[in-house]
């Protein structure tokens, strides 16, 4: 890794964070929800909207998201970017915001997202997948694509539906400790395995929620981070990788580009896997969690199913994974990546309530875009890990 990339370690910090409208937010548009989260995050940082001079946004409902955000909030940024690589966009925005802040292109960066997917009548179906490959076979994307990956993992490594069910059960266990989570209440392995089949081998319980929701974070340079209300959460390392768009062009259905994005993030951060107190993984489907645990180096390739057995990633387990309840039980409004960051900030601030991980100092956030396509890994920390 170049010296320039290493020099970004700890150069920026998240000083404001907020969410809004998680679950069902009747009567609000996607932009209104985004605005609620953005204003609350700016206030959380002890700032005012005119202080924001950098804007980073991606949405599924606006062709020109930063222009829409700027107009709606009345901002006049010096720097803006609307990179859209699906659900991993916001981990990428952390890197872009850090670079812009370090270069002096802006002083206060806002990263934001909002969606009313649930109350607007949305379903877990994506028409953005390239259709020239798969159209004759009538896929139901993105579920069909993830079903292919799950089936291949089962065939190659002996992973079972019971292993996938462990992921859903762990997510619900964390959600039951999170009053903001949309899906709470008892859930048994029998219920997961007996749920309606959507795309073999994935049942309804293997699929993420369809909710409303918005999130926002505010970043500044590290040298001014302590001037804000909350203890800063530092951006230690970010790495990205992307090798395909369509699932049929994925080189290996059982290995994602997270192998490279993770290594790049860990190298920039100068951190090890065992340093991570909280691991936030984009769990659009239960197979994602297994793939990312493997590809990010928390267990060997093919061992993800066995790794999660016996509640290992559930509350009280050895590795705290998706402590908010994840996309499976907390929130998933189309693009989930910013909510990973929001929960990591919550944990590193020590504000997790019943689900708080004691003495958490480092957290990993891994975003996934498209159909296991764009992968972006971010490592955050408290001042103690600088």
TrEMBL record:
One GO term in the molecular function aspect is: acetyl-CoA C-acyltransferase activity
Domain Thiolase C-terminal per the UniProt entry, residue ranges: 239-382
Say if the entry is tagged with keyword Transmembrane helix.
no
Pfam family name, one: Thiolase_C_1
Would I find Transferase among this entry's keywords?
yes
Sorted keywords for this record are: Transferase
- Entry-linked PANTHER family: ACETYL-COA C-ACETYLTRANSFERASE (PTHR42870), NON-SPECIFIC LIPID-TRANSFER PROTEIN-LIKE 2 (PTHR42870:SF1)
Q: Protein name, please?
A: Acetyl-CoA acetyltransferase
């Amino acid at each position: 890794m170049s010296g320039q990339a290493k020099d970004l370690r700890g150069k920026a910090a998240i000083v404001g964070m907020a969410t809004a409208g998680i679950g069902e937010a009747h009567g609000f548009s996607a932009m209104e929800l985004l605005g609620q989260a953005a204003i609350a995050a700016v206030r959380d940082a002890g700032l005012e909207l005119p202080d924001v001079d950098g804007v980073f946004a991606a949405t599924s409902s606006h062709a020109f998201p930063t222009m829409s955000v700027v107009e709606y909030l009345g901002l006049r940024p010096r720097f803006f970017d609307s990179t859209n690589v699906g659900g991993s966009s916001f981990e990428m925005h952390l890197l872009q915001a850090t670079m812009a802040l370090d270069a002096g292109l802006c002083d206060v960066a806002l990263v934001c997202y909002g969606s009313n997917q649930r109350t607007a009548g949305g379903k877990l179906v994506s028409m953005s997948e390239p259709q020239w490959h798969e159209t004759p076979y009538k896929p139901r994307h993105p579920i069909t694509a993830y079903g292919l990956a799950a089936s291949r993992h089962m065939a190659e490594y002996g992973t079972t539906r019971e292993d996938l069910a462990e992921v859903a059960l762990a997510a619900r266990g964390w959600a039951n400790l999170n009053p903001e989570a949309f899906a709470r209440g008892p859930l048994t392995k029998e219920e997961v395995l007996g749920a309606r089949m959507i795309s073999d081998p994935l049942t309804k319980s293997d699929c993420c929620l369809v909710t409303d929701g918005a999130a926002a974070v505010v970043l500044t340079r590290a040298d001014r981070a302590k001037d804000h209300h909350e203890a800063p959460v530092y951006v230690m390392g970010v790495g990205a990788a992307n090798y395909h768009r369509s699932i049929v062009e994925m080189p290996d259905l059982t290995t994602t580009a997270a192998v490279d994005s993770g290594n790049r993030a860990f190298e920039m951060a100068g951190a090890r896997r065992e340093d991570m107190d909280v691991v936030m993984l984009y769990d659009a489907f239960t197979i994602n969690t297994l793939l990312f645990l493997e590809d990010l180096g928390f267990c060997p390739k093919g061992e993800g199913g066995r790794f999660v057995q016996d509640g290992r990633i559930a509350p009280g387990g050895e590795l705290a994974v998706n402590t908010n309840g994840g996309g499976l039980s907390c929130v998933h409004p189309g693009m989930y990546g910013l909510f990973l960051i929001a929960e990591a900030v919550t944990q590193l601030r020590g504000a997790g309530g019943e689900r708080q991980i004691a003495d958490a100092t480092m957290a990993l956030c891994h975003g996934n875009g498209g159909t296991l396509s764009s992968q972006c890994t971010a490592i955050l920390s408290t001042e103690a890990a600088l």
